[in-house]
Amino acid sequence: MLQKAVSETVAESSYRQIRADIIFGRLTPGQKLKLENLKGAYGTSVSTLREILNRLSSEGLVLAEGQRGFEVAGVSVADLKEIAALRLLLEEHALEQSFEQGDVDWEAQLVSAHYKLARMEKVMASGDTSQAEDWKRYDWEFHQALIAACGSRLLMETHSAIFDKYLRYQMVALSYRGGVAELEHKQLLEAALRRDSSAAKQILQRHIQGGVEHALDRGLLSSSTKREKIDNGRTA
User: Fold this and answer.
1) CB atoms within 10 A of CB 47
2) CATH class label, 77-235
């Protein structure tokens, strides 16, 4: 039993590490994932790696190519816009529920999450991108804090999975929008403390749409459709 528990722990740790490496761009879109190479890099067996990659394939982060093996899922304009629209749909709904049900402890956690994010945004604004992963972690924590009181664990988990896919595009493009995003985060905090879900939804829509446009403008993808926008959570 102990050996099985240790094995499961190693497998879960390797899964989380490979998943993080995909999301944060250390494993790049389209990169071939050769089991023998991964075995040395992540210190786990080929059979465990195959299980992990199949799991990541079910999440849409890895492509399973039959006998040809695995590769990191690619990126595209259409995929980014679909992910952004779904994130907006989920986050708007969860945000409204959270604002209705949040208590004083929720407010305190939200203020704390925003404080950490704002500090890291100042670092990014200085031109220091060495802590980009910490910046995006605090960004994730802030948006999770906004919806933390929604009362649905499944909604939180689904939003988190979509947010991670959105985050992968941001990390590929290192899509930091400077003072615009910083202001939007502050406005979201203020709307949350006022329990003004209508205002927060409008800010969130601008926030996500702006992130998509900024990522594309940085040359993440080349397409004649790169200027298309999302409108009210749907692809234009």
Assistant:
1) 10
2) mainly alpha
